[in-house]
Write a structure and sequence with these properties.
It is a single chain. The chain has helices at 28-37, 65-71, 82-95, 106-117, 131-139, 167-176, 200-212, 224-235, 241-251, 275-288, 299-311, 315-334, 352-355, 365-377, 416-431, 459-471, and strands spanning 52-53, 99-103, 123-126, 143-146, 184-187, 217-220, 254-258, 268-272, 347-351, 379-380, 382-384, 404-408, 439-441, 453-455. It is globular. It contains 16 helices and 14 strands. Strand 5 (184-187), helix 7 and strand 6 form a beta-alpha-beta unit. The protein has two domains: 28-57 and 318-471, Aspartate Aminotransferase, domain 1, CATH 3.90.1150.10; 65-311, Aspartate Aminotransferase, domain 2. It has a five-stranded mixed sheet with strand order 2-8-7-6-5, sandwiched between helices. It has a three-stranded antiparallel sheet with strand order 9-12-11. A two-stranded parallel sheet has the order 1-10. With 475 residues, it is α/β, with parallel strands linked by helices. The longest helix has 20 residues, at 315-334. Bound molecules: pyridoxal-5'-phosphate. The site of pyridoxal-5'-phosphate has 13 residues, from helix 4.
Length: 475
């Protein structure tokens, strides 16, 4: 944040733009048509109809000149590429581990870890669950349990580390499931509860408890750069980002991450110091991903990751996502718009149950709000609620209780003027929230990313009519 003479502090972009991609803002009538064609499902929209692509931060973060230039020096050898050696050296330096296994993205790492380390019936406790992880654990007959502190599920709060483990619950589970725990997974930061971080002290204490019980710890560092920023600014300002990274690395047995998120690139990585784990997992990389010196990642992407990982250790660089998210969330709150607080990493999360309290859970408030946001602004967010995760019992946390629209903040992609545009359109939408109605499924099961829904009544058309009255000819 930078203080201003004539206005409130604003985040300042700490980069200049060398390459640009043209984007277009379609007229509101086209946005309505596109929403209908997409079955009110933002995954089905195409880039031509999207002005601000805030669906995810995965694989869409802007790259630096150095990363692009590095791609040209990639050593395209099938085996023994020098790019692999360079990337290994960078990873060992940052994360203090000596074995590296590449995989094509985060879920591929999860598949390898699950196949290699989980036996049928074994349990994987974690601070919080993520969809790709749970799928892989279930594939091999494993079980999972989330051991988040209760406050992690409170949407509006002032707790700085809502991703923390409940350490009492962790100890209890390790005791009662003694001998039956495959490993404990630590997600830093957490995705599904609003990008909320876990504290360094909590990670280190959780790892110490696991060691007492002889249980391995696995750190999912996919959303780590935001989490590192929060540890440095909210918990340990006396430590540098590199020091924090090393201290945590020394506490855990295995680290993996999606490089679509961490490192401004593409790919995935598993790191450990334990030779026996490395030897167990390496054949699985060869079987499912590719030869273990590229593991399904393009060599050019591996080369670009070397520079990208250095950027994840740069405080200005990793502050930008959280600062933009905090700015967006703070401005929305000024209009009374309910957002998840404190603002976390990954994106700004809007509480749809409070935004559209008149839309019942059975009519998908978060899906309806995501569609209304797209129609009003051209920004596509992601529904995180009953469509993504069908509600069995609306009173059962986490999913039944949470109906969120996530506006992800791809790193270094959008400018403050674009965020200000979004804030304006969201404030208009909030004024007109009574116009927003519900959705219903056009097609029954199976539910997945490609679901088609429809509006209950013509509320989208009425929203567009009001938009034209208020904004005139403006797009
Ligand atoms: C915390 C976390 N772990 C794992 C993954 C899976 O990574 P990928 O999408 O590269 O498979 C994601 C992706 O969103 C994530 O957020």
């Amino acid at each position: 944040m930078i203080n201003y003479f004539s206005r409130e502090p604003l985040p300042l972009e700490m980069h200049k733009i060398c390459y640009v991609q043209k984007t277009q803002l379609q007229p509101v009538e086209r946005r309505l048509a596109a929403a209908r064609e997409a079955g009110f499902n933002s995954y089905r929209l195409t880039s031509n109809d999207v002005y601000l692509d805030m669906l995810t931060d995965s694989g869409v973060n802007a790259m630096t000149l150095c990363q692009l230039a590095a791609m040209m020096r990639a050593d395209e050898a099938y085996a023994g590429s020098t790019t692999f050696s360079r990337l290994s050296a960078k990873l060992f330096d940052i994360f203090d581990k000596k074995y590296f296994l590449p995989a094509h993205q985060g879920r591929a790492c999860e598949q390898i870890l699950s196949r290699g380390l989980i036996k049928e019936g074994q349990l994987v406790p974690m601070n919080f669950e993520f969809g790709t992880t749970i799928n892989q654990i279930k594939q091999v007959g494993g079980r999972h349990v989330s051991l988040l502190l209760d406050e992690g599920l409170v949407l509006q709060s002032d707790k700085p580390f809502k991703g923390n483990f409940d350490l009492k619950k962790l100890r209890h589970v390790l005791e009662s499931e003694r001998g039956n725990v495959a490993f404990v997974r630590i997600e830093a930061g957490t995705n599904l509860i609003g990008g909320q971080p876990i504290s360094m002290d909590n990670i280190i204490e959780a790892a110490a408890i696991c060691r007492e019980y002889g249980v391995l710890t696995v750190l999912d560092a996919s959303l780590y750069q935001d989490n590192l920023h929060f540890i440095r600014t909210r918990e340990h300002p006396e430590l540098s980002t590199r020091q924090i990274t090393k201290l945590i690395a020394q506490a855990v047995d295995i680290i993996y991450f999606s490089a679509r998120k961490l490192g401004f690139g593409k790919g995935g990585a598993i790191l450990t110091n334990d030779e026996s784990i490395f030897l167990k997992l390496e054949p699985l990389i060869a079987r499912f991903e590719g030869f273990p010196t590229y593991g399904g990642i393009s060599i050019r992407d591996m080369e670009s990751l070397i520079d990208g990982l250095d950027d994840t250790m740069d405080d200005d660089t990793i502050a930008q996502g959280p600062n933009f998210i905090a700015y967006l969330a703070g401005e929305l709150q000024k209009y009374g718009i309910p957002v998840v607080t404190p603002p976390g990493g990954l994106g700004c999360h809007i509480d749809a149950r409070k935004f559209v309290p008149h839309v019942p859970l059975s009519e998908y408030p978060a899906g309806s709000l995501a569609a209304a946001i797209y129609i009003s602004s051209g920004a596509r967010g992601m529904e995180r609620g009953g469509i993504d995760e069908p509600i069995e019992n609306p009173n059962d946390p986490p999913f039944g209780a949470m109906e969120l629209v996530r506006l992800a903040m791809p790193r270094r992609v959008y400018t403050i003027s674009q965020i200000n545009y979004l804030i304006d359109r969201l404030s208009w939408l909030y004024e007109n929230r009574d116009l927003i109605g519900g959705l219903y499924f056009e097609e029954g099961a199976p539910r997945n990313f490609y679901d088609r829904l429809n509006s209950i009544g013509d509320w989208p058309e009425r929203l567009v009519k009001k938009f034209r009255i208020d904004f005139g000819e403006s797009l």
